[in-house]
Design brief:
Number of strands: 14
Number of helices: 14
Strand order of the largest sheet: 4-5-6-9-10-11-14
Shape: globular
Oligomer: single chain
Distance between the termini: 29 Å
Helix content: 25-40%
Largest sheet: 7 strands, mixed
């Protein structure tokens, strides 16, 4: 019989991932020794020196397309396939690195930037053996602005409209490519971290997808009523005087990568948490529609993402062949907003009618015997999501593993 103790002592206003430190202790009456570990929130920015949950499956070369969703993960989700679980955790590490690289220090003039040079980002977050190289830093610009009278007294960090949001990394290690069965390109996004991003999150009504983002644009003048959340769309498409839009940066980098490796099997995996999960979905849709038939297999692995668009957007996304795997905690309210689920008929009468996309892999933190804290912060934290995926096997993962295999965040 095991007991779990979780505390949640401190919060931060800058992210969905509020708990600064949550300590859990596991003990077993059948063992004299006990193992304990500390979970620290995903947003902590000193880099990741802790051990990863991800374990590399020996050889994916024969099943990589199935793990990337080519068959919509048929037969792999219930129960969760061990190899797929390891891949989900591996991609979760890239999201964790996006948090670890972000400068959360609001007293710093560099608030909102990446704290590591591009060549040292992954190594600084404990991913020096990932086999990937960061090729592009990505920035998002908020389209909303504070009123002038508020800008006069608000601190600089509160009005910052352009921030580092993630990166593009390309697998360039021959042994890793051999294991994966292809060259993989990862686009990773962090969650909400600035006041202006929070303001965009609150713009929850639906806006029509621009024609140059629409799969229907080539066939029809209109976008088949394809709509997405206004704030997410703004963060993806807005440019500033000093920064290109996230959309333009992603398009340029992906085209460059495809041109560099034209004769190799290639995959694009876009992953993110919270706001980053929504941006991952928009990014996948944009890449698929802008590349058309030239697009490789595009997969989204999202953690704790809110809804993105309406029923028409769901259909258009499916038409592109993009595969989306949403990892959801039933007890996380962020995955149940914005708006409400609505079919086409209901959506015509409201700006709040959304639809879920892709396949869902659902867990419940309340049903997990090792997580006793049920607050919104804990339920939504990326660390909780990775723990739930890790403990998804039917056998007791804590009965025989050494303590150094238990998750220790940065």
């Amino acid at each position: 019989m095991r007991a779990a103790i979780i505390s949640n002592p401190q919060t931060t206003p800058f992210s969905h991932n509020f708990p600064r430190g949550a300590t859990a202790t596991f003990s077993s009456m059948s063992q004299k020794s006990s193992c304990s570990f500390t979970i620290k929130a995903s947003w902590k920015s000193e880099g990741s020196s802790g051990r990863s949950l991800a374990v590399k499956t020996k050889n994916l070369s024969e099943k990589w397309k199935e793990f990337q969703g080519i068959k919509n993960w048929e037969g792999l989700l219930n129960p969760l396939d061990e190899g797929l679980r390891d891949e989900i955790l591996r991609y979760g590490e890239f999201v964790k690195a996006a948090y670890g690289c972000f400068n959360f220090d609001s007293t710093s003039t560099e608030f909102g930037s990446c704290i590591y040079p591009k060549g040292k980002m992954l190594a600084s977050c404990g991913m020096e053996k990932s086999g990937y190289k960061v090729t592009k830093n990505l920035y998002a610009n908020a389209g909303v602005r504070m009123p002038e009278w508020m800008q006069q007294w608000a601190p600089n960090w509160a009005t910052k409209s352009s921030s580092w949001i993630g990166y593009v990394a390309v697998c360039n290690n021959k042994s890793e490519m051999s294991r994966l069965g292809r060259r993989d390109v990862v686009i990773a996004f962090r969650g909400t971290a600035t006041c202006m991003e929070w303001m965009e999150n609150l713009r929850a009504t639906l806006s029509e997808v621009p024609k140059d983002l629409s799969a229907a644009a080539e066939e029809e003048e209109e976008c088949c009523d394809c709509k997405v959340q206004s704030g997410f769309l703004s963060l993806y498409t807005t440019s500033s005087r000093t920064r290109r839009s996230l959309r333009d940066s992603v398009r340029e980098e992906i085209r460059k990568v495809i041109a560099t490796y034209p004769d190799e099997p290639l995959s694009i995996t876009i992953t993110g948490h919270s706001l980053g999960a929504s941006l991952a979905t928009l990014t996948a849709y944009d890449i698929a529609t802008s590349l058309g038939a030239a697009a490789p297999l595009i997969t989204v692995v999202s953690f704790g993402g809110p809804r993105v668009g309406n029923k028409s957007f769901q259909r258009e996304l499916e038409k592109t062949g993009t595969k989306v795997l949403r990892i959801v905690n039933s007890d996380d309210p962020i995955t149940k907003v914005p708006g409400f689920l609505a079919d086409d008929a209901a959506a015509r009468w409201t700006q709040w009618g959304y639809a879920e996309v892709g396949k869902e892999l659902r867990f419940s933190s309340k049903e997990c015997p090792y997580i006793s804290e049920s607050g919104i912060a804990t339920c939504h934290d990326l660390t909780t999501y990775l723990q739930l995926v890790y403990m998804s096997e039917t056998r007791d993962r804590y009965s025989s593993i050494p303590s150094n295999k238990i998750y220790v965040d940065c």
